[in-house]
Design a protein that fits this description.
The complex is a heterodimer of chains A (170) and B (474).
Chain A (H helix, E strand, L loop, with lengths): L2 H18 L1 H6 L6 H6 L1 H4 L3 E15 L2 E7 L4 E7 H4 L10 E2 L2 E12 L5 E13 L2 E2 L6 H26 L4
Parallel strand pairs in A: 3-6
Antiparallel strand pairs in A: 1-2, 1-5, 2-3, 4-7, 5-6
Chain B lengths: L1 H9 L3 H25 L8 H25 L6 H12 L15 H16 L1 H8 L7 H7 L10 H29 L6 H14 L17 H14 L3 H8 L4 H5 L1 H24 L5 H16 L9 H7 L2 H13 L12 H19 L9 E4 L1 E4 L2 H27 L4 H12 L15 H15 L3 H15 L2
Antiparallel strand pairs in B: 1-2
The chains are: A alpha+beta (170), B mainly alpha (474).
């Protein structure tokens, strides 16, 4: 094996390891569950932390900055970041979309002095871990069948009710 | 259910459309069945019937309205769906929904319509739009804990309530939509969020379309406008009508407004003292946005939140929590969208106390007449004091039962008390006890408590007495 190939192999091996354990490699710290930040807010107050989760709802532009809300499996948290960083977001979570999964690093505040006591994260960087995608909601055929049967039954009962009412029986 | 069904069709949420179609058919079938079994009874409606119909309609309504919730797949069980419906109808605002951030427009519309309808009262809705025969209608109307007659005719009273609410709905939705647009939310979401924020605020329900509730918006303006609308929503409909009719002095003189203002000031001082002791917020603006906001949200029994449930327990400290628990128990005004044992009763008790003290220091032969102002000058009678005391005692007893229920389910005392106060007052603030993982027994207890509290006990007691009498006579 030539020297160049060996170097390339070593480089690729490192890259593969980095991809497998990408989160710690990219940020230097494992993401903290959002619920941990809430429960141990005094412990994390003022510290640099990394969180990972789905962007939900809206990217709310406020001047040169923006608020985005990031939800992991435990809870959601407000992230305040430069709008230039927020522009990387392509999808936000809603009924129709799974939002981008992002990795955010910044300073956590239990009661943010800049945002009047908000529990938030001031981020300086945001990385898209996996882009969002449309969510499919295929028609539930059993539900459609049930709805059809109920509609027919209701129409039949309504007809009986109308006739009895007209005949003065109700 | 036709309204959310239309929303589902417009938004092309086909599964949700089927959920609402199934629910709609179930409602009609239940209605036909009830007409059939009640068709032979032609007796005039008595007070007992009025009470029984009012209380029973809330149970039937809950079971039927929970169908689309359950079919949506956002609830772990039918019980959870029923819990959320009762929470919406009673304008409580506690929720067991899962993955709310991915819920569709139709489902969110149903959540907020339920709480908006519940705020005015289902019976008021029926009287306005559905019932042709107003005979005995007032008795059903009173059964829903609304005893103010704005106009001589009860149906016109119900229509006046709806007129007031719809005008506020238009103004409120416009304001919230513009604020949401300004805060970076795009159309059509800005409009829908505006509509839902108004519905959740005005009805003092406290539902919001995102899982973080009002915290989601990170917006001072939204917080300010929600304060305005939920405070106005917590006022007596008769007071609204008096002010609309040009009697603005009523705002200054009304015993409920005076009572609300006094208790709000005292409890704000207590909360602030608690915050200073616990040293949790950096400045006065933070105290306003986190402390005062939750205090007035609790006092009006709205339940909008800008902190996480667990922050109440972890951060607030016992003094501020005590103030918030008291605020939730007192609640808003009688005959309004709010819950709690109401400012009117606090005012009556204060006047009764003042009368007794005056009696002690005056000569025995002097004649004392104690009056309070509620739409007109009212001479305080023993009947007023007895009714006020009885209802307050029942609320406090229910609060105790709820606390014991929480303790039996394994929650710490403070959390059990906080949640029980929230349920008793139909508030919706949570210390984290109400989750899908809550034991089913506690969920059932909370459903019963929300129902009893919203109807202020009497009509539910009448229903049980009616059933007991029926069984005895068999």
């Amino acid at each position: 094996m030539r020297r160049g190939e060996r170097v390339r192999l070593i480089y690729l091996s490192f890259l593969a390891v980095a991809i497998i354990f990408w989160r710690p490699v990219l940020t230097g710290a494992a993401p903290v569950p959002v619920n941990d930040l809430i429960e141990k807010s005094r412990e994390y107050d003022g510290k640099r932390v990394t969180i990972s989760g789905e962007v939900i709802g809206d990217v709310m532009k406020r001047g040169n900055f923006a608020w985005v809300n990031v939800a992991d499996s435990s809870a959601a948290i407000g992230v305040w970041l430069p709008y230039e960083e927020a522009k990387k977001i392509t999808h936000t979570g809603s009924y129709r979309f799974r939002g981008d999964t992002v990795l955010v690093e910044g300073v956590f505040h239990r009661a943010c002095p800049e945002h009047y006591g908000e529990l938030d994260l001031h981020a300086d960087s945001l990385q898209i871990v996996s882009p969002g995608r449309p969510l499919s909601h295929p028609l539930d055929r059993e539900k459609a069948l049930l709805a059809g049967i109920l509609l027919l039954l209701t129409a039949a009962v309504a007809m009986v009710w109308y006739r009895r009412r007209k005949a003065g029986l109700l | 259910m036709l309204f959310p069904l239309a929303v589902a069709i417009i938004a092309r949420e086909w599964n949700a459309a089927l959920d609402f179609l199934i629910g709609f058919c179930a409602c009609l079938l239940a209605g036909f069945f009830l007409v059939l079994i009640c068709a032979r009874g032609k007796r005039p409606i008595s007070w007992t019937h009025g009470m029984v119909v009012a209380s029973f309609s809330w149970i039937i309504g809950m079971l039927l309205a929970a169908i689309p919730y359950y079919l949506s797949g956002h609830y772990l069980s039918y019980l959870d769906a029923c819990f959320d419906v009762m929470s919406g109808f009673t304008t409580t605002g506690l929720t067991l929904i899962q993955d709310l951030d991915h819920a569709g427009y139709a489902l969110n519309m149903w959540r907020h319509v339920l709480t908006y309808l519940g705020g005015q009262g289902m019976v008021v809705f029926a009287l306005t739009f559905l019932m042709n025969d107003a005979g005995g209608a007032f008795k059903i109307y009173v059964g829903e804990a609304k005893d103010e007659k704005l106009l001589p005719n009860v149906r016109n009273t119900a229509r006046a309530i709806w007129f007031i609410s719809v005008v506020y709905l238009l103004v409120g939705t416009l304001i919230f939509t513009l604020v949401a647009l300004g805060e970076g939310i795009k159309m059509p979401r800005a409009f829908l969020h505006g509509l839902w924020l108004f519905m959740g605020g005005w009805s003092t329900g406290g539902f919001a379309p995102m899982s973080q509730n009002i915290l989601y918006y990170h917006s001072l303006l939204i917080e300010l406008f929600t304060i305005i609308f939920f405070t106005v929503g917590s006022f007596n409909f008769a007071l609204h009508y008096a002010v609309w009719s040009g009697d603005r002095q009523e705002l200054r003189k009304n015993v409920e407004i005076i009572s609300f203002t006094v208790t709000l000031i005292l409890l704000t001082l207590l909360t602030t003292a608690g915050f200073m002791k616990a040293k949790i917020y950096p400045d006065w603006m933070a105290v306003f946005r986190k402390g005062f906001y939750h205090l007035i949200s609790g006092h009006t029994t709205t339940g909008f939140m800008t902190v996480y449930a667990r922050q109440f327990i972890n951060d607030w400290g016992e003094l501020a929590l005590l103030a918030l628990i008291i605020a939730m128990l007192i609640g808003g005004s009688a005959s309004s969208t709010a819950g709690g044992f109401k400012g009117l009763r606090m005012g009556i008790l204060f006047h009764a106390l003042r009368e007794d003290v005056r009696r002690l220091i005056r000569p025995e032969t002097s004649v004392l007449v104690e009056k309070f102002h509620h739409l007109r000058e009212v001479v305080l009678g023993e009947r007023h004091v007895r009714m006020a005391l009885m209802i307050i005692v029942l609320y406090v007893f229910m609060f105790a039962v709820g606390t014991v229920g929480g303790l039996l389910a394994g929650y710490p005392l403070l959390e059990a008390m906080f949640e029980a106060a929230s349920v008793t007052g139909n508030v919706g603030l949570s210390a984290g006890v109400t989750t899908p993982a809550t034991p089913w027994g506690l969920k059932v207890l909370y459903i019963i408590m929300m129902w009893l509290a919203r109807l202020e006990f009497m009509s539910v007691f009448a229903m049980f007495a009616y059933i007991a009498a029926g069984l005895k006579n068999r």
